[in-house]
Amino acid sequence: MYAYDQYDQAMVDARVEEFRDQARRRLEGKLTEDQFKPLRLMNGLYLQLHAYMLRVAIPYGTLNSLQMRALADIAEKYDRGYGHFTTRQNIQYNWIKLEDAADILADLAKVEMHAIQTSGNCIRNISSDHFAGATADEVVDPRPYAELLRQWSSFHPEFSYLPRKFKIAVIASEKDRAAMRLHDIGINIVQNDTGELGAAFYVGGGMGRTPMIAPCINAFVPLDHFVTYAEACLRVYNRYGRRDNKYKARIKILVHELGAEEYTRQVEEEFAQLLDQGIEPPLAELERIRTFFEDPPFDGDADAEIDRSDPDFAVWVDRNTVPHKQPGYVSAVISLKPVGGIPGDATAEQMRLMADLAKDYSFDECRVMHTQNIVLPHVRKADLHALWTALEDAGLGSPNLDTVEDIIACPGLDYCSLANARSIPVAQKISERFAANGKTGTLGELKLKISGCINACGHHHAGHIGILGVDRKGVENYQLLLGGSEAEDVSLAKITGPGFDENGIVDAVETVTSVYERERQDGERFVDTYRRIGMNPFKEALYG
Amino acid sequence: MRLLTGNDLKSGAVTWWTGSDWSIHIEDAVDVTGSEDEIARREEAARRVNVPYAIDAELHEGSPRPSHIKERVRALGPTVRPDLTLKPADPEIGNWVI
Amino acid sequence: MADTLRYRDDEPVDHPAVTVDAFLDQSNASAVRIEPGDDARALVPHLERLALVEVNFPAFGDGRGYSSARILREAGFEGELRAVGDVLVDQLAYMRRCGFDAFEPDEQFDMDDVKAAFERWPEVYQSAADSRTPIWTKRHA
Ligand code: SF4
Predict the structure, then answer these.
(1) Domains of chain A
(2) How far is the CA of A208 from the centre of ligand 1 (A)?
(3) What does pTM read for this prediction?
(4) Do the Cβ atoms of A414 and B78 come within 8 Å?
(5) Burial label, A414 (beta-carbon count in 10 A; 0-12, 13-18, 19+)
(6) How many whole angstroms from B43 Cα to the centroid of ligand 1?
(7) ipTM value > 0.95
């Protein structure tokens, strides 16, 4: 994985000192809260429902054991012993003191981590495919491109006061495991007929109150123009994105209002202006970065067979491991979705255990998935039983990847000041319901996503089943949506009809899964059946 | 009744105006009807509170209870982690919030 | 209004800046003020005539002026580029990188904070309108 050199380290250290100074000026009253707010946000520090919240960047989700351990230490030293892994592959802490914030950033900097641009109207942490470098289906490893964009976007002098936040995802395969087309910019590294690599730019996707699927604005940007093209996309947005209305300020609205063609024309024009401005990094930099992402020293003789004599273990293997490009290896997913638990939360002890397991079994690397789980990317099949045993002992062995129990849920009203309703208790009740009725396994792949408000941090628009919390005259109410996807079959979910109360929504989810069980044809997933039969049968079952 | 609330600037803790100071316990909060803006301005300027605002509440068994669920969660802590709330030992507290 | 900080040696322009529309109309002015919604590129054909461009920041969170500044520098403007209005000390370093070389903030800066702001960044990651060499170029020099 990427390692800092003296330059990267110097920048992160400088940022710590800058923030220490800013926090001091705020505490002394030299900065008003209005002035301080964008500065703290650019360091991931929110004022949340109960306290300050700190969001730490995990570039493209990747952590080594030292870093994971540092995250555990921070949870214990400065917070209340746990952290929350988010849908953007980051971690956030809920009980932070402003007085401690600079010290936390300093602790992070010691392990090459930071909270830079994890909030605010700037370019956020770049996300990527959590199976990068491990999966056989990629054209190339997307992470070097994400790292190049990380550098380009860090402390960008022109794009730090954008109309609104800006999220970029980079993938390099037909399969989309990063919700690429639901980002402000989604980049897919592709290969053309002559074998040359280039970047397909998808611009103007997003969730929130106006969900949009990003159109492709350029199917092949040569790699030696890659950064300049991104700069052009951003400049057009910075100049013309709406600033009169916060809810219309994301780039998706600009692209939508201009039309993709006109937006593209403006980008191309800007790009032509920028081409001779020396913006593009030397290609040697991409080569340098690539060396950090070379394959680890795989064991060429690793056993291809798994001893499946332990039935519980076999279930976990079937559910939570994913094929690897290297024979004898798999990627193993650690579920942070225990039945009745809080999706994405991990205690300091669990983080330390995951750090140890990453070190022992996965070449010292683990990754945060946007589904709020952790993956050990390169595990020898022969080590799986030992890995599973350790996970089971720590309550991390739930065999439920991509099932109805593997729920994405935003923090909701339990933690978030923007929320209309709680998300976590709904997730807890649903996972308990399906664990009790025994249907989790038979329902197969079913992506269920819950947001506590229209901001859609829980990606409810992109759930096979989505749930949106709303406020009905001061009472929590939940809308049900069906048919979304954030994968390569991207689609936006549709609302079924009137909402439900907390228990009603759990029943409603069970009802729609029963319709699926009744109607499904061979091999169909829930979303396939929905696409084939449409909304009506589900509506009838729900509302009679 | 109206309550004045905000966060402690240094710790970020949720605080309530008690008539003379700020407390993390909502039981200590007093009605500020009529004087909310003035107190908020003065206290914020002195940095004894950060981003203060007033909310509606009712008296409930002798103590103030915010009218909106969000402020009740805020007053107490996350409903999904009773151990981290201000009243970890009170089994009835869920009913106060919801 | 506070003092103007200038990081250039020439004499400041001694007459007020006019709006972009007035300037394009017919003015002989050599100083113009750009508002956030103005198209900085409209000035590009006339840069020779301009000694001062003021870029107004009515609200510090509106970052359009950063693009305006860079566009003018990219087009070769060498006159004074002054950030005016709700300009905060924590923004100076980035503004400088976008080509501003003068600052006229609504509220006076503490000069120690100004100094700290300009000394803050040991390196830069990307190229902009200043002459600093990006890290990725240094790595392969
Ligand atoms: S979706 Fe709404 S409630 Fe959930 S975390 Fe985002 S802003 Fe908060």
Answers:
(1) 6-109 (3.90.480.20), 134-291 (3.30.413.10), 311-393 (no CATH), 408-543 (3.30.413.10)
(2) 10
(3) 0.95
(4) yes
(5) buried
(6) 30
(7) yes
